[in-house]
């Protein structure tokens, strides 16, 4: 091999080596950032949050003390709900917060639930309550330290409304939320 070919090969190897080293350093910094920072990456499983989030999406969430109404949060699946969804692992619930402490959730009939927030109210369409044993006017108040959750794809979501219809406690305790809060970035991969 002549000198020019050797120099060219050596240059190629150097670029390859330094490029791989740079990629490794970036990966270590990136992973370290997520391990030590208040950010977490979570993978979405299932259709319950479609069309907002789809199965396979990666979301970056920011840890936060207080979760507010209409934010999407990551919650620990309550023990009482595990049998209803045939889940044996410590699965995450990725749901929208529709009721916060002090809110009153009222079954309004005709596939509707009203959320009374103290100074206002709003309605949610809940098609899955057709086979439910709730009566018009049945209600539950979100107590301190709890949340009422809903999937954006109401028909295919096991959430607070589904739990309520199944006779389970529909409120998700604050201590099962951990430190995960609202979504700050969605990576559809």
**Radius of gyration over all CA atoms, rounded:** 23 Å
Gross morphology is elongated
Our measurement of the CA-to-CA distance between the termini, rounded to an integer number of angstroms, reads 45 Å
**CATH architecture classification of the largest domain:** Ribbon
- What's the number of domains? 2
Q: Could you state the oligomeric state of the chains shown?
A: single chain
- SS field, number of helical segments: 3
What can you tell me about this protein's structure?
The structure is a single chain. The chain is an alpha+beta fold and 189 residues long. It folds into two domains: 37 residues; 149 residues, Umud Fragment, subunit A, CATH 2.10.109.10. It is 23% helix and 31% strand. The protein contains three helices and eleven strands; from the N terminus they run H-E-E-E-H-E-E-E-E-E-E-H-E-E. A four-stranded antiparallel β-sheet has the order 3-4-9-10, with no helix packed on it. It has a four-stranded antiparallel β-sheet with strand order 7-6-5-8, with no helix packed on it. The longest helix has 34 residues. The radius of gyration is 23 Å and the shape is elongated.
Topology readout:
Blueprint: H1 3-36, E1 39-43, E2 58-63, E3 72-76, H2 79-82, E4 92-99, E5 104-109, E6 112-116, E7 121-125, E8 139-141, E9 146-150, H3 160-165, E10 171-173, E11 180-187
Antiparallel strand pairs: 1-2, 2-11, 3-4, 4-9, 5-6, 5-8, 6-7, 9-10
């Amino acid at each position: 091999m002549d000198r020019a070919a050797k120099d060219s090969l050596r240059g190629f190897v150097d670029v390859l080596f330094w490029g791989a080293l740079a990629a490794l350093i970036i990966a270590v910094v990136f992973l370290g950032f997520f391990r030590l920072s208040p950010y977490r990456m979570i993978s979405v499983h299932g259709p319950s949050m479609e069309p907002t989030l789809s199965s396979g999406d990666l979301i970056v969430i920011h840890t936060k003390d207080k979760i507010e109404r209409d934010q999407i949060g990551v919650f620990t699946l309550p023990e009482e709900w595990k049998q209803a969804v045939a889940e044996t692992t410590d699965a995450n619930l990725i749901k929208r917060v529709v009721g916060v402490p002090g809110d009153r959730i009222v079954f309004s009939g005709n596939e509707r639930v009203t959320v009374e927030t103290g100074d206002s109210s709003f309605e949610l369409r809940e098609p899955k309550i057709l086979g439910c044993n709730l009566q018009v006017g049945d209600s539950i108040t979100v107590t301190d330290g709890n949340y009422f959750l809903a999937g954006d794809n109401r028909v295919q979501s096991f959430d607070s409304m589904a739990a309520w219809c199944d006779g389970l406690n529909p409120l998700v305790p604050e201590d099962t939320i951990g430190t995960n809060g609202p979504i700050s970035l969605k990576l559809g991969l």
